[in-house]
Amino acid sequence: MPKKPFFTSAFIAWLVFVSYTSLTSFSGVDTSSFSFNIPNVDKIVHFVFYFNTAILGVFFIWEHKKWDISLTKALMLMFCFAVIYGIIIEVLQYSYTVDREGDVLDGLANSFGGFIGVLTCKYIFSRKGFMQWRDKQI
Hints:
The chain is an all-alpha fold. The model has no long low-confidence stretch (mean pLDDT 86). It starts with 5 loop residues before the first helix and ends in a 14-residue tail after the last helix. The longest helix has 26 residues. Helix content is 64%, strand content 0%. The protein contains four helices and no strands.
């Protein structure tokens, strides 16, 4: 276990935040002061949520260097996690919430955000990027 598990804590906190905001009703909350006249802003929010999920997830795996996993496997694992997690959240919204709805387009926005997130991490850990996936000694 790392001495300071920053990304582990951030990843878990982010998943709790996404789950809570996705499954909680905000019908009694006055959101008029936060309303924007941007078409499909909901899809942008879904994209950003899962973009961050993928990035924090890859850094969570990176933080645990004792895990013997290649960057490619970590990226594939986190992309699959983001897609499955997004589908589960959409199904829960459809099945268990009163005023929230599951939406296929939300699921696609989730998946696209996860995909772009892992591509971003691929660049970050590439030769052109500014971080290394593994130490040179390994």
